[in-house]
Specification:
This protein is of the alpha+beta class and 357 residues long. It is built from nine helices and 16 strands. A hairpin with a 5-residue loop joins strand 3 and strand 4. Helix 4 (180-187) packs across helix 8 (296-329). It starts with 15 loop residues before the first helix and ends with a helix.
């Protein structure tokens, strides 16, 4: 049997066929962080998720449980919810079919007009849904392993941080003229720092990053600004734990495959998440978080770090289109990875395994 043609690294950033393959074999099969738990905190809170094609409805039931459903009425397929809000039940606006928050259908209007109709068989179609680190996760693949089975120890490493306590200080959504992988790639390596960040983070990075894999996911540890005065500040701003000295001092970047990056320290959290629009554009979600009930010293430190984070991000975004445009100029090209680019190299290896399945 003939082997499938291998897509070049550049094609994975530019090719429409590669984009379609990523959507089908990655985003329609992997566990995805769809929203923050605090965004649907109360019974009846709901929001829709449409970043990967099929519309999914996320809702917290009267019993406090978060559930996910295909956002499609079982009558004639219309959406039963739009955007976000709060409701005691969910009603399709076209024919008034009404669903309870657990997805079950109430007897519809003029039910006698249907032949051999049982409302119990026409509830909303469930989507697999779990909560972890304060995020709501969904999976469109009924045959995929449970979320915890896929994490390979990332969940245990993140447990001391109590990330469910984090709340956004700032969040934004941008449409970028670049492939969805580009911002993740440049954000998890330090080889570009002297060229792109010569006066921001460059002078404060003194060592080679350490990269470790966790199945499909990986972690990069960077010792940023390891100044003596920081140990005093670190310990007074760190809640949760217990933390190792490395966790207190170093920035830990976790990439949870396929599209979530967590920049973690005990006193703040930065989240990057990218959603593909097409091969050349993506929707980029950025949020910077401080711990709930933030104390004055934590707040001062957090705001300062947030301002630095925005500057570094702005510098990265300024060169991001060069990646997609340059890859399109030579779509047959493969990449060469420096030792300080071990994290994006690991990511590309994982992506190829998923695409080859």
């Amino acid at each position: 049997m003939a082997q499938p043609t291998r897509l070049s690294d550049a094609a994975l950033f530019t090719d429409d066929a590669a984009f379609d393959l990523e959507r089908k074999r990655v985003f329609h099969r992997a566990w995805l962080a769809a929203c923050a738990e605090h965004e649907i905190a109360r019974p009846g809170d709901y929001r829709t998720f449409e970043e990967v094609g099929p519309s999914v409805l996320l809702v917290r039931g009267h019993d406090g449980v978060v559930r996910a459903f295909r956002n499609s009425c079982r009558h004639r397929g219309a959406c039963v919810a739009e955007g976000s809000g709060r409701a005691r039940s969910l009603t399709c606006r076209i024919h008034n079919w009404t669903y309870e928050l657990d997805g079950s259908l109430r007897p519809p209007p003029a039910v006698d007009g249907f032949e051999d109709f049982d409302p119990a068989d026409k509830g909303l179609v469930p989507v697999r849904c779990e909560t972890w680190i304060g995020l709501v996760w969904i999976c469109l693949d009924d045959d995929a392993p449970e979320l915890r089975e896929t994490l390979h120890g990332v969940d245990e490493e993140l447990e001391p941080y109590n990330l469910e306590q984090m709340r956004p200080l700032h969040q934004r959504v941008d449409t970028l003229q670049s492939n969805w992988k580009a911002i993740l790639d440049i954000s998890q390596e330090t080889y570009h720092v002297p060229a792109v960040h010569p006066r921001s983070i460059g002078p404060h990075l003194f060592s080679q990053p350490q990269v470790e894999g966790y199945g499909d996911h990986h972690r990069m540890v960077a010792d940023v600004a390891p100044y003596r005065w920081r140990s005093w500040l670190d310990r007074r701003c760190a809640r949760g734990g217990p933390y190792t000295d490395e966790q207190l001092r170093c920035l830990h970047k976790y990439v949870v495959f396929p599209n979530l990056m967590l920049n973690v320290l005990p006193y703040h959290l930065t989240i990057f998440q990218t959603w593909p629009i097409d091969a050349h554009r993506c929707r980029f979600h950025y949020s910077f978080h401080l711990r709930r009930g933030v104390r004055p010293l934590e707040a001062v430190r957090g705001v300062g770090t947030w301002m630095a984070s925005r500057l570094i991000l702005r510098e990265d975004l300024a060169v991001l289109d060069l990646i997609t445009k340059g890859a399109a100029a030579y779509p047959e090209g493969d990449f060469v990875f420096h030792e300080n680019e071990a994290a994006p190299a690991y990511f590309m290896g994982t992506l190829r395994r998923w695409l080859d399945r």
